[in-house]
Amino acid sequence: MTDDDEALATALLIEGFPAKPADIWAAFFRRLRILGTNGPADVPFGYLMDTAGITTGVMMTPATLRDRPDGSKGTVINLSSWYVQPPERWRAGRMLQAVLKKHDAMFTDLTPTDEVRAMLPAFGFEAINAGVVVSLLPVAAVLPAGGARVRSMLPGDAALPDATRTILEAHVRAGCLAFVLEGDGPAMPLLFRKRTLKGVPAAKLIYCPDLARFQAALPAVARGLMTSGVGVLISDDTSAPLRTGQLKRSRGLKFVRSGAGFAPVPNVTDHTASELALLDL
């Protein structure tokens, strides 16, 4: 997909996801450009599938470079907003296989449909969560927070490593909320994307490098998010014990295919440079 293909891709996305507002896709492309991570990763914004000269499928591919454990960099690609027109849907597996062969990368699929979810294990994907946890922030906020406190990330925030701050600042420019958890340990970055849940202002957890510490500091996190008008938090269910004000829901399964020296890391949420960070889902 090139810049010249954006209108064609948008038309297919509107056709494939009629329940979503049409302007969500223009915002998606705009935020991908603001984020600016696909270029350094040498991955296009997406791929189109042609059948006999007619474009019949689209798959968006937000991507980024991340540090491997040895300090080198590798590619992580999010497979997003995948649509194939019904008469050609039997070719969907071929389209997926073609994209997987294009790049040496770890691939994620964070919002698969039931049909896609059924086919992912055959392509080497594994589930990384058991569903989602919904946290009712006004309830969590009244619990003791110990020494934990949460504040908004500042421009040029000296408490965070340069590389972490840079990627979080790019996400803030793309519409995310960035906070810093302090106390009971070194400063820890947190990233969220606002949304609504049944009409209630909510947020999704996009990035957290230590979920155990996050869960322990939930009251402080709740207070910080409530200052931004958020009443409900949605995060991945990683089977940690629930706290007061939290409940589990068996939906929102997310999948990863390891590669390029990357594999899912327990106790970490990292959905940066993905549809969850860029789309108002």
Beta-strand content estimate = 25-35%
Mean pLDDT over all positions: 94
Class per helix and strand makeup:
alpha+beta
Count of domain modules: 2
Distance between termini? 23 Å
Indicate the overall shape: globular
- Using the coordinates above, name the CATH class of the largest domain: Alpha Beta
What percent of residues adopt helix (DSSP H or I)? Answer: 25-40%
- Work out the number of β strands: 16
Counting DSSP H or I runs of 4 or more residues, the number of helices is 10
Instruction: Tell me the major beta sheet.
Output: 8 strands, mixed
CATH topology of the largest domain: Aminopeptidase
Radius of gyration: 19 Å
List low-pLDDT spans.
Answer: none
Q: For this structure, what is the CATH homologous superfamily of the largest domain?
A: Gcn5-related N-acetyltransferase (GNAT)
The CATH architecture designation of the largest domain is: 3-Layer(aba) Sandwich
Q: Report the order of strands and helices.
A: HHHEEEEEHEHEEHEHEEEHHEEEEH
How would you describe this protein?
The longest helix has 12 residues, at about 25-35. The protein folds into 2 domains: about 5-125, Gcn5-related N-acetyltransferase (GNAT) (Aminopeptidase), CATH 3.40.630.30; about 130-250, Aminopeptidase. It is α+β, with helices and mostly antiparallel strands. The mean pLDDT is about 95. The strands form 3 sheets. Strands 8, 9, 10, 11, 12, 13, 14 and 16 form an 8-stranded mixed beta sheet that branches. About 30% of the residues lie in helices and about 30% in strands.
